[in-house]
Amino acid sequence: MKFLPQKYRIPDEAMKPFIDPDELHSFLKQPQPDARRIRDIIQKSLDKQRLSLMEVADLLNANDPGLIEEIKAGAHTLKERIYGNRIVLFAPLYIGNKCVNNCRYCGFRTSNKDQKRATLLDSQIVREVEALEDNGQKRLILVYGEHPDYNAEFIAHTVRTVYAVKKGHGEIRRVNINAAPLDIEGFKTVKSAGIGTYQVFQETYHPETYAHYHPSGPKRDFNWRLTSLDRAMEGGIDDLGIGALFGLYDWRYEVLALVRHTNHFEAVYNIGPHTISFPRIKAAAGIDVKPDYYVSDADFIRLIAILRLAVPYTGMILTAREPVRIREAAMSFGVSQIDGGTKLELGSYSESKNEIQNLNREQFEINDSRSLNEIIDELLEKGYLPSFCTGCYRVGRTGEHFMEFSVPGFIKRYCTPNAILTLSEYLLDYATESTSAKGWKVIEENLNKMQDPAVEKETRLRLTRIRNGERDLFF
Ligand code: SAM
Ligand code: SF4
Question: To test ligand 2's pocket by mutation, which of 94, 101, 114 has the most ligand atoms within 8 angstroms of CB?
């Protein structure tokens, strides 16, 4: 406990297992809720009140097609009302795919002897980051297999290496991590390198299913993984990403468990997870996944809408695993962050290979191979405001998503201006001519919609400074 500021102290109570499968199943066995109940729950969420587990279970239990549409419409309204039209962009950077675990769903599993294993050298990291910066990326998530080579010191070193790479106007302003769970000392070490979010996905919150899909290696320990983000908190990292891999077990159970995990954070640390991820199983070399719990597109969109209503203040991430049409629907019902220009093969950003994926060199199949510029162009076409903002994290406004949600005027004061400023940098430094023209039009529209003349004036002033060559001006 000694590393933890008082506000994050973990009461002993918290270390009791907070996932009780029987309890979660019992919620899901409740009778079908009627229309009135569902409408009340949607309204409660729109009124910015947190839903109870039973209320979330009712949303999950509602099978009537008309009610499902109402849930989706509620999520859409909430997304528009609270977050507006911003979409935050990032890219993954795979650092190493050596792995001692044998997760049955993953192309990196140790038994997959055809997988070509590699770890980027510092010089390769630099080349990859330069290539990402040349594309206009400002936010990365570094991804690692679980291996003794990838200990906390190594992760911290790679984070520092990434931050140090500056090319032209390019720089990475936020480095997030997706890696195996660490101990408290390890989390402290990684924190000291200045990471943003630390993501650990539980994969499945159902212990028996978890045991089946993780037959060997340290990841086999369900509770070590489940409590990993509590250790991260204790190590001083309060910016955490949770997630479940959809397709291993009943999607309703996993959604309820994600909400239960969120409630645990809120109850113990008074701060929820920064992001929730909900990857769906994709093709990968050597995988062995039963089709029993495959999640259809319709159910996938439905679960995204329910998560949006259930945890309204948390960032929701959907990656290039999904095809364009699913990503577009997901943004409309709740997703606030997507990756762009994604490549999974180690070294592939700088080597311009990987036009066709080779699953013996990559973790899984992706279904959206658009470049960052193509994605930005299409977001602009659809009226979204692409953002590379890293403002809150860099001035220490942690819990920013909660503030977006709960502090009146927060988005107008910080998020929209910062989205505009970071988009303007992209348009000046990296965009194609036609994307740039669309982008400036969208910027002007968003400036004209600003209700506070002082904020509009200051944003316009900073835009002029950016046009004159300054960079990284944020509120
Ligand atoms: N080794 C780290 C760990 O296990 O936490 C990093 C995980 S991996 C590089 C990132 C995530 O990809 C996993 O947590 C899992 O949810 C997801 N994933 C693995 N195999 C997948 C597949 N076949 N399709 C979609 N997502 C997959
Ligand atoms: Fe290794 Fe992570 Fe893949 Fe499991 S999911 S095999 S731990 S890289």
Answer: 101
